[in-house]
Amino acid sequence: MKRVLVTGGTGYIGSHTAVELIRAGYEVLILDNLFNSKITVLDKIEKITGVRPKFFKVDLKNYMETEKVFAENEIDSVIHFAGLKAVGESVEKPLDYYENNIGGTVNLLKAMIETQVFELVFSSSAAVYGEQATPVYNEEMATGVNISSPYGWTKAMIEQIIKDTAKANPQFKATILRYFNPIGADKSGLIGEDPNGRPNNLMPIVMKVYRGEIPELVIYGDDYPTEDGSCVRDYIHVTDLSKGHLRALEKIKEGVSVYNLGSGKGTSVFQIIQAFEEISGKELPKKVGTRRAGDLPEFYADPSLAERELGWKAKLGVKDAILDTLRYLENL
Ligand code: UD1
Hints:
alpha/beta
């Protein structure tokens, strides 16, 4: 079985993918700088799978340390999650985002080429489609036009860097996965989304409001041209998303392939809140506020290419994600 290095493997999507990889029999190594995650996630992964992945506390910005991991560990493939991901913060600190996300990836790719590791799955985002795109989003759409944040730009730029790397190194194979809105937690309830500091995304905020750590949920606008006036997103269960990475690894082919990973279904902010309240049995303190800059009314995937070529499809729904999130909250 392949030996897979997961960068950002103690983070939200990285840890869930590590678990799915181990469950499927892969040998997993994790590299993370622990900037936005906790070392205790390794204990949780061990508890869930019975296996403790080898861990390297390494920052990809440090080339020497990164290359050492490759030189000493006979790695077959890499799944690259490590990066900063707060959209709003990236507008305030663009250089941190370019330094971390672009600089880190360039080092990673250099170390891979240097040590002849030629298989990469990259964690990209639907943000690369930019503001001019309208749903349904498919992989043929232009990227890199009117992207609303430096975060989104780093993803688009990294996609280009990967394509150029593959062009220059014919043995190099890469699959780029563009995620929509990941939510939920592993069914064990032991790992989930636990960002350091104040969260920006809807579900982590809902979780904090539910626990009384944030006094009130603000719905960012109810006057969008959607059915109930709130924004519509394509929420995808993190376990489905993680399994998409396994399929991508199994089916990796020459050159660079790109797939959307989404459910293909739109759910509004009001629908998410209603489902959360119904399932948890608790009403959340909330109010309607003004629109958040850069938000688009509707955003959902055409996931059919991933189904056709990877044999992957989202199986779990928003309700499953909320149930698993509540289980995770009980364990926090
Ligand atoms: C954002 C980014 C996306 C990134 C993703 C994960 C944009 C356009 N998209 O997605 O690139 O990959 O985060 O980090 O920036 N909402 C509220 N109240 C809140 C929080 C959110 O009403 O307190 C609403 C938002 O307006 C939005 C929906 O909930 O309609 C989801 O928001 P969020 O979880 O932040 O994700 P996106 O903005 O879709």
